Amino acid sequence: MDKLIIEGGHPLRGQISISGAKNASLVLMPAALLANGVSVFRNTPELNDVYTMIKIMKHLGAEVNFSDHVISIDTSVLTSMEAPYELVKKMRASFYVLGPLLAKYGYAKVSLPGGCAWGPRPINLHLEGLKKLGAEIELDAGYIIARSRKLVGAKINFDKSSVGATGNVLMAAVLAKGTTVINNAAMEPEITNLTHFLNKMGARISGIETPILTIEGVDELKPAEIETIPDRIEAGTLMIAAAMTRGSVTFTNIRDNHLIAVLARLEDAGAKVLNQNGLVMVSLDNSDIIPSDVTTSIFPGFPTDMQAQWIAYMSTAFGTSTITDTIYLDRFAHVPEINRLGADITVKENSAIVRGVPKLNGAKVMSTDLRASASLVLAGLIAEGTTEVLRVYHLDRGYEKLEEKLNSLGARIQRVAGSEY
Ligand code: UD1
User: What three-state secondary structure class fits 57?
Assistant: First the structure.
C-alpha cells in the first residue's frame, strides 16, 4: 500500500485535461456483453476500478485490449456467466454484468456485493426491476443467480432514483420482448452516456436525459464504439484544489453542463469561474472562502461524490457551513481524519457542521474510501507543513494519476511505495 506525502501551501496554476469518467466506463464496459464482437470505448481512464472490470470481462471469456485510453472488448466467445466474489468484493460496480448477461444469455451468477465503508448499499431495486422483466432470482451461497428464457418488457417504477439499478435494468430491457418504461430513472450523465452507447448498438431507447426512459426491445444488438464522457467528479475535485490553494487552473476536456451545481457552489463560496469555448477556469485570490451550505442530491444536484471534498474546502472558510448528504446518510468517515489536521467539524445525523478555522496543520491521516481520500489530499494541499495520506489504494481506484496531475500544476506530492501504509 502506497502513501502520499504532501507539502502544503503551494498554489495550483496552469492547465489540465480531465480524464474519462470512471463511473461511465464501469457501466459502458459491461454493455459490450449485449452483442457478439468488438466494442470500443475511447477516453477510458487508466485506473484500478477499470482494471478490475477488465478482469471480470476476461473471467467471462472476453478478449480485452487497453492501450492509450482506448479499450476494446471482444465478446464473440464467452466461457462463463459468473462474476466471482473475489472480483465483486473489490468493486461493487461489478454487479453491472448481471443485467446484460441475463438479457443475452438467459443466465447470470453474480456475487452479492458486500458491505461498504459508507453504510448500507442495497441492491433491491436492481433485483425488483429485473424480476419485473420476468427474471427468476435466487440467492445461493452469497451469489445472486438470475434466470430467464426471454425477458418481457414491463413498467418499472423505482421508489428511489438509482444509478446502478437504472443501468442494470436498462441493459436488460434493451433485449426484452416489447416495451419497458422505467419511471424515476437516474439522469446522471454516466447513464446518458450508456443510453447513447446502447442506441448505437441498435437499441431503441427514448426519453434520454429525462426520468422516464422508454425502451422498445430488439432481438439483437451489434457491437459499437463510443467516447467516454469526462469525469465530472475528477473535475470538481481539481476545481476545489485550485480554489483552496488560492490558485488558478484552466480545465480542458470538460462538460460544464455536467457540473452546474458544483460550479454554482464554487461561485457562492467566492471562487471565480470563467466558462468559455469549452474551457472552464477556476481561481480564487487571497480573499476569504465564503461558507456555503451544500445538500447532495441526484443529478443535476450537487453530487454525493463531491461531499467529502466540499467539507475539506469549507474547513478553512470564514464562518460555519452545513453539508448534508441525502444520498448516503453515513458517508462521513473522512470527518475525523480532516479534524486530525485541525479542522473543526462535527457530524449530526446526515449533516456535517463545518466551523471554518484559519488554517490546517499537516499530520498523518488515513484514507477510508475513494472520495474521502480525495478530501484528505485537498486538505493536505493547504495544511501547513507535511501531510501523509496513508492507504491511497482507495484513491488509485478512481482517480487517474491524481498526484501527477496536481504536481504538474505546482503541488508538491511524493508517492512512497510500501506495504506498511
Ligand atoms: C453510483 C456511483 C457512486 C455514486 C452513486 C450516487 C458508480 C459505479 N457508482 O453508485 O459513485 O456515489 O451512484 O450518485 O456509478 N439504493 C437502494 N436500492 C438499490 C440501489 C440503490 O435503496 O437497489 C439507494 C442507495 O442506498 C442510495 C441511492 O439509492 O441511497 C442511490 O444509490 P445509487 O444511485 O444506486 O448508487 P450506485 O449506483 O451504487
Answer: helix
Q: Taking a C-beta distance cutoff of 8 angstroms, is the pair 279, 254 a contact?
A: yes
| 208: phi then psi, degrees, rounded to nearest 5 | -60, 140
Is the CB of 294 inside a 6 Å radius of any atom of ligand 1? no
Cα 143 to averaged position of ligand 1 atoms, centre (Å): 20
Q: Give the CA count within 13 Å in the CB-facing half-sphere of 197.
A: 32
- Which ligand 1 atom minimizes the distance to the CA of 304? 12
Residues 98-109 as b/e (b if ≥16 CB within 10 A, e otherwise) read bbbbbbbeeebb
Of the candidates 39, 52, 20, the one whose C-alpha atom is nearest the C-alpha of residue 100 is 39
Quick check: helix, strand or coil at residue 222?
coil
Cβ atoms 153, 133 nearer than 8 A:
yes
Ligand 1 center–CA 365 separation, angstroms: 27
User: Ligand 1 in contact with 119 (CB < 6 A)?
Assistant: no
CB 273 within 8 A of CB 37: no
Q: Is 165 in the pocket of ligand 1 (CB under 6 A)?
A: yes
Phi, psi dihedral angles at 388 (to 5 degrees): -110, 120
Tens of pLDDT along 380-413? 999 999 999 998 989 999 999 999 999 999 999 9
Let me know: does 256 contact 229? Beta carbons within 8 Å: no
When pLDDT is averaged across residues 227-242 and rounded to a whole number, the result is 98
Is the distance from the beta carbon of residue 169 to the nearest atom of ligand 1 less than 6 Å? no
